Amino acid sequence: MNMEKSEKLYRKARNLLPGGVSSPVRAIKPYPFYTVRAEGSKLYDVDGNEYIDYCMGYGPLILGHRNPTIQQAIAEQMEKGWLYGTPTPSELDMAQMIADAFESIEMVRFVNSGSEATMSALRIARGFTGKEKVIKIEGGFHGAHDAVLVKAGSGATTHGVPNSMGVPVDFVKNTLQVPYNDVEALIELIEKNRDNVACLIMEPVMGNSGLILPKDGYLKEVRRVTEENDVLLIFDEVITGFRVSYGGAQDYYGVHSDLTTLGKIAGGGLPFGIVGGKEEIMEHLSPSGKVYQAGTFNGNPLVLAAGLATLRFLRNNDVYGYLEQCGKELNKGINDTIHDLKLEYNLSSLGSMFCLFFGETPGNYEEALQCDKDRFLQFFYELLKEGIFFPPSQYETCFISYAHETEDIQKTIEAVHVCLKRL
Ligand SMILES: *Cc1c(COP(=O)(O)O)cnc(C)c1O
Fold first, then answer.
1. What are 265-316's pLDDT values in tens digits?
2. Domains in the chain: ranges and CATH
3. Closest alpha carbon to 310 in 180, 401, 202
């Protein structure tokens, strides 16, 4: 496999971008491949290599790369301008579609990324309740802002410890943590901080420590406990929204949050974030309330065009049925390989999301850390040589898109077999 041009570009990038990349997950050693084109299920790099993509922009591209319907919607909006600085009819269309999709949402605020959405959700929760502390799940990811950049680990469950330099301890002393799938720990933490917990923010299905599924009844218990203690429940559905089902994980599991954050798929591949909830809570946002939030690009018409086209496509086609079927096929193939080669690896999956754990199936972050992440990386490199692009970490989730075809799935199953055997 020729990677000459990518290698050369990376050498230059090292002098222009910290670590040579614009976001840390993209830093593949010894150098990443540089993409120049994408189509359907595939990425094409500057050296002419082709990859079946399971990263899919880290989640947003549920319809695959360069879906013609989305492309047309963007092109049509381009003819009419792409930033107005005034209200637009399309923001009402989008707000209505979100409210129709999520039983727990009546009102929304559009922002520009998932990070912004969670930042705003925490502020709303604190403004609404008048309480200061927030609880997150160990290993949960909610973007890269101060309040949620707290290291996971047992010592951090009572007092937040920053895991990024540049985050003052004072900024995260109100961020508490509990392990996923552990209701007792949540009850204990809430009781210890009685009357000062504004909210629990969590991914209903963890997608950023690999893929970790909720145990039977866990989400319902979380809902009950938060409700009984006047703690707002924020489901961060930036990955799971429109992925696990059209109405997100909350519709799939039948458990509804007080506030919901969305992004990724909802923007059709353009930068987007949404925070939504019941009117009673959302009305606290400026200008109707005293919780401030603003943004030059909020509700950007180009993003809304791409997002609306995506949601309409999802509503009008049996995308989820197709993804489910592809997922099943791929799972079976990979599980057969694991079985044939007598490996102690485990595949975690939900619809179009999957993650091959090099170890036991984890129920929380601590358990996920036990996996052999170095061996996973070797596997990742082997797959790349076979023209298959998985996200370059044990702790990312793979995504199947509507553009993946049976041929892609078969090729992937064979490649996984070959690569696991070679390790
Ligand atoms: C990706 C992600 C975010 C951050 O979204 P950005 O658009 O990258 O800022 C927040 N929460 C979850 C669950 C995510 O997966």
1. 999 999 999 999 999 999 999 999 999 999 999 999 999 999 999 999 999 9
2. 4-66+318-422 (3.90.1150.10), 68-315 (3.40.640.10)
3. 401
How far apart are the CA of 114 and the centre of ligand 1, in A? Answer: 4
Ranges assigned E (strand) in 248-383: 259-263, 273-277, 346-350, 353-357
Taking the model in full, what pTM does it have? Answer: 0.96
Per-residue pLDDT, averaged over 260-264, amounts to 98
Angle of helix 406-422 versus helix 373-385 axis, rounded to 10: 120
Tell how far the Cα of 79 is from the centroid of ligand 1, in angstroms.
30
Ligand 1 proximity of 115 Cβ (cutoff 6 Å): yes
Helix (H, G, I), strand (E, B) or coil at 63: coil
- Other beta carbons within 10 angstroms of residue 357's beta carbon come to 24
In the reported structure, the alpha carbon of residue 58 is separated from the centroid of ligand 1 by a whole-number distance in angstroms of: 9
3-state helix, strand, coil in the chain (%, to 5): 40, 15, 40
* pLDDT per position as a tens digit, 56-106: 999 999 999 999 999 999 999 999 999 999 999 999 999 999 999 999 999
The residues near 68 (Cβ < 8 Å, ≥ 6 apart) are none
Half-sphere exposure of 55 (CA within 13 A, CB side): 21
Q: How far apart are alpha carbons 297 and 240 in whole angstroms?
A: 24
Give the Cα separation of 406 and 343 in Å (integer): 25
Looking at residue 151, its pLDDT comes to 58
Pairing assessment for the beta strands 273-277 and 107-111 based on DSSP bridges:
antiparallel
